[in-house]
From TrEMBL:
NCBIfam families in alphabetical order: NDP-sugDHase
GO MF terms, alphabetically ordered: UDP-N-acetyl-D-mannosamine dehydrogenase activity
Protein known as: UDP-N-acetyl-D-mannosamine dehydrogenase
EC number: 1.1.1.336
InterPro entries: 6-PGluconate_DH-like_C_sf, NAD(P)-bd_dom_sf, UDP-Glc/GDP-Man, UDP-Glc/GDP-Man_DH_C, UDP-Glc/GDP-Man_DH_C_sf, UDP-Glc/GDP-Man_DH_dimer, UDP-Glc/GDP-Man_DH_N, UDP_ManNAc/GlcNAc_DH
UDP-glucose/GDP-mannose dehydrogenase C-terminal domain ranges (all copies): 344-437
Source species: Halomarina salina
Keyword Nucleotide-binding found: no
Domain of life (superkingdom): Archaea
Amino acid sequence: MRSSEVVGLYGTDAPADRQRRALTSGRVPVAVYGLGKMGLPLAAVYAELTGNVTGVDIDEQVVETVNAGGTHVTGEPGLADLVSVVTADGSLQAVNDPSEAAEAARLHVAIVPTTLTEERRPDLAALEAVVESVAHGLSPGDLFVVESTVPPGTCRDLVEPTLAAASGLDPDEFGVAFCPERTASGRALRDIRGSYPKVVGGVDEESTRAAALVYDELVDNEVIRVSDTTTAECVKVFEGLYRDVNIALANELALVRDDLDVDVVEAISVANTQPYCDIHTPGAGVGGHCIPYYPYFVFDRVSGEMPLSRAARDVNDSMPRFLAETVVDGLQARGTAIEDATVAVLGLAYRPGVAETRASPAIPLVEDLSSRGARILVVDPVLDGASADYPLTPIEELERTDLDAAVLVTNHPEFGDLDWESYDSLVCVDGRDALVDLPDRHDCYVVGRGPN
Ligand SMILES: NC(=O)C1=CN([C@@H]2O[C@H](COP(=O)(O)OP(=O)(O)OC[C@H]3O[C@@H](n4cnc5c(N)ncnc54)[C@H](O)[C@@H]3O)[C@@H](O)[C@H]2O)C=CC1
Ligand SMILES: CC(=O)N[C@@H]1[C@@H](OP(=O)(O)OP(=O)(O)OC[C@H]2O[C@@H](n3ccc(=O)[nH]c3=O)[C@H](O)[C@@H]2O)O[C@H](C(=O)O)[C@@H](O)[C@@H]1O
């Protein structure tokens, strides 16, 4: 496309309908940085809308797979077909090198990982690398959108100043907006297309306007404009904090289940029958690189202690230890020492069907049981050897193994086919209230429900 036909949205005085037509006819070239669980679906939806998207990923295998019309992201209904269509018709191409894409694009969308360091400080290295690359290709009129979840103040204090300094442009020559990705693995396309209102906040009015125009076209739901990027950043991390604290309340109630001698899960579900109560589900712990990470994005930006949110993190992080202690107690009750036991840990990924192990509660559980001397078999049907933190035992091998105990951490559907009849007598700890119809000879403890 001749560069003269290419337009930027930020600061243009073209009528809004002409801007929309430019976007949907491909005259606002888009670059999406990060083609992972969220980035690839997002790039595909942008490609479907604009016909002119370059996806950038540092992983050569990802780029090769996408350009061959394939997808490395599994468990996403509709994604494989969509990627195949948009790569075949040229709407989406993938590259490793960000510089060319940054030069050509007028709309830059960053959706690279934002994680934590070992010291649980925000790790924005991937985003910083993208900002540096884009800066060298930034043109007046460009719009830089951050979809990665970031600590409040990141767009204002890091993204905009770095873009200005490295590009030599004045901040009022380009736009920066934060438009959080309110999407969950397993329903990414549906969520990206508009399961929920899209939140948009810019570093200035014009950035908010331009970003709102883009997402008005991209999503089938309301676009909510907020005061600025920091407000939009807070919306996203507040959602995560809310979830983490409410899961912690459910877990705290599960931890006192034996004293109360009630089915806590039953009491929670009935308590939730009136609209002012939304206690979440107790479980094996909180994993993924979202919910357990976002509180630290906020802790890092405030001087206050935030005791409630920190305590919630501690409660959720205590669940793997509770599971381990329940296994030890169950084995002890039948005269088996943990150091003589073989224990299967079912589910290493943090969520069913999602090939992601970051912050998975299975990891501290495996470490805890191993430190007590147990022999551990880790079973996870969605992970391959390369993506797992431990050697994996295939499900079919499990039934031929002389097990003493099994702990369900993540309820992959494949575990529904496990033949519990094939084991003599097990200690079972069900971290997801998912194991049903186990033979009575097994001693089963369900988190929140107690022994059955
Ligand atoms: N996974 C989820 O459920 C959700 C994630 N998010 C946010 O989206 C962001 C991305 O998350 P995921 O897609 O799950 O991550 P992911 O780990 O699945 O994928 C990240 C991709 O970015 C690539 N990458 C890393 N550094 C790069 C760089 N400098 N330039 C280009 N590509 C680079 C990686 O190779 C990988 O393919 C994170 O900030 C996360 O907080 C937001 C909502 C939901
Ligand atoms: C409100 C909501 O559903 N947020 C989603 C969430 O996605 P995520 O993949 O992190 O899954 P999740 O359902 O929050 O689960 C996170 C972890 O918490 C555990 N979990 C979840 C809910 C619950 O009641 N109890 C519980 O123990 C899960 O087992 C998992 O280990 O976090 C994403 C994010 O914020 O990045 C967000 O975009 C997604 O929409």
